[in-house]
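Just curious: can you write whichever protein you like plus the matching structure tokens?

***
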Amino acid sequence: MRVTPKEFCIHNLRYIVRSAIVKDAKSLSEVRLQIDGETENLDREKGEAYIDESGFKQIIKDDTESSSNLFLVAEANEKIVGFSRCEGNKLKRFSHKVEFGVCVLKEYWGYGIGRNLLKESIDWADSNEIKKITLNVLETNDKAIKLYEKYGFEVEGILKKDKILSDGNYYNTVVMGRFKG
């Protein structure tokens, strides 16, 4: 599905949140690879589960055609600096919900990009009969957890010792959800 682009200006950085288009595929592949190497907050290490340009073209095409998927990008200085996806489920019993994921280049943290990708996704979900948004977040990512709570997400569960990070320790994954009744 597509949304109307929105422009934001925070701390003198002008950026647009818009739907992903096929010509974004190469940039998305590069940005995802870079982000995976910049933080342990995400599931992948750099290079794992790599999606190439043609893979992103297919995801964008599928998401654009699906009424229960949304693929957004944040573009600043004519380059993609972050993106988010809401992925629905084709099974009828789960058709009321989507799973949300977001990532932003470390250089662009602090400009509200993740927050605005989240807000636009929530607005889209609320206006498209989607009742529930779910997400997973690393227990140490306090900033993200506080942001999600601010937008109505609640902790639904904890996946104990779910991830092993570079320090050799195991960490919990926090499962959160936002239900609009």
